[in-house]
Automatic annotation (TrEMBL):
Gene3D superfamilies: 3.30.230.10, P-loop containing nucleotide triphosphate hydrolases. InterPro entries: AAA+_ATPase, CHLI-like, MCM_dom, Mg_chelat-rel, Mg_chelat-rel_C, Mg_chelatse_chII-like_cat_dom, P-loop_NTPase, Ribosomal_Su5_D2-typ_SF. PANTHER family: COMPETENCE PROTEIN COMM (PTHR32039:SF7), MAGNESIUM-CHELATASE SUBUNIT CHLI (PTHR32039). GO terms for molecular function: ATP binding; DNA binding. This is YifB family Mg chelatase-like AAA ATPase. It holds the Pfam family Mg_chelatase. The lineage of its organism: Bacteria, Pseudomonadati, Pseudomonadota, Gammaproteobacteria, Cellvibrionales. It comes from the Bacteria. Residues 209-391 form the AAA+ ATPase domain.
Amino acid sequence: MELAVIHSRALSGLSAPPVRVEAHLSNGLPAFNIVGLPETAVRESKERVRSAIINSHFEFPDRRITINLAPADLPKEGGRFDLPIALGILLASGQLQDQLQTLHEYLGELALDGSLCAVPGVVCAALAATACEHTLVVPDSCAGNAGQVPGARIIAAPDLLSLCAHINGAEVISPHRASAPQESDSCPDLCDVVGQLSARRALEIAACGAHNLLLSGPPGTGKTLLASRLPGILPPLSEEEALVALALRDFHGDEDAARGARLRPFRAPHHSASAAALIGGGRHPRPGEASLAHGGVLFLDELPEFSRPCREVLREPLESGRVTLSRAAHKLSYPASFQLVAAMNPCPCGYLGDPERPCRCTPEQVQRYAGRISGPLLDRIDLHIAVPRQSPGLLLQPGAGGEPSAAVRARVIQCRERQLARQQCTNAALQSEQLLNACQLGRAERTLLEDAARRMQLSGRALHRTLRVARSIADMAAHATVTCAHLSEALGYRTP
């Protein structure tokens, strides 16, 4: 046989389009050509494949070799095609039996000694292969991630020689058995927070309704401490959410992405991060921190210190829950439904309104500092919370911590169950018509909300977000309707 076809998969966003790797051996001067829109890493696979075949005790054909990666208009990148290219050459040269090619797909980067190295995107490939009822052959170092896909048939190969022996029937590689994902260390506990009753209350409301949160206060008052405790009181990810989060982490080449698969992600990029790092980008667009926080929490500490493009680029995913990256040749979309938790100081020196230390800033400096956060971004943050300094006596008192995360999490789960039973989504995701039906406002509630909207000059977006917070507060109290008390508390959280 001088022509062989091996099936593989490319990576385009979170999809894995099929790729046919066609290998043809012909007479003529020895040459090795790869066509089909290969990127640099794919073109460089020629030397990796040659060395891997020779070091695996096979003969590299001294003929004209042409590799076609079809479809030709789909960009191919990375070392994921090394293994199918090597298998295609061995099959076309008659050194490999044509037994397992039809219902199998192959991914893997080859080292020079023939061993297989992990490649990103195996979870997306496993999802696509499972939908086609194909078996996916991957390096054993990333089989753990691929095996988390329900119903996936995975073969984990350590090296090229072992895989060829398996195909030729000389030895058998047993199908990979998916193990239960290992849970990482538990999240930090909320009982570590001393005092801050209003902030703890706001944190629970945010967890119940999946609302965004802004914490403002002097340095060292516990803003970061509070934010890091939010994932510990959120419900665990559903199976579908966990699979999407796993695919996003695996996209970045995390070989241990299945660890802690049901925990909500918590991403805290530094304020020096670029807009592309936050939202995603690059020549071949990759997901950023906003997508890696999908289903969990994106924490932006020192919010005014982030560049303006970084802050404003988050406005679209905060509304739509998705990030769309457009390039001249193609457009990709990544999920980015996260809870934004931001922290900031009240002024440049950090001590405006602090009873312990005087503020050194002028009114102009304070106004300029606050003006770094645009109105449209503040509109999208549901709860604005002041985190004041606690007394030293309270901080040094033994056992001064509040409720543990487990107790708060149980209430949050009950509240989420009420929302899912009523509207099949969280309160933060309610649309306008659904929101009014879920709140069932009476005449007194409507009058209160209208007066507050005029007095506080609330936009339509801010008004609806306030109503969603009030619905969450009512759910926490197991009330079927939203009352004036719930609206008053929600309106109190709109004050910067």
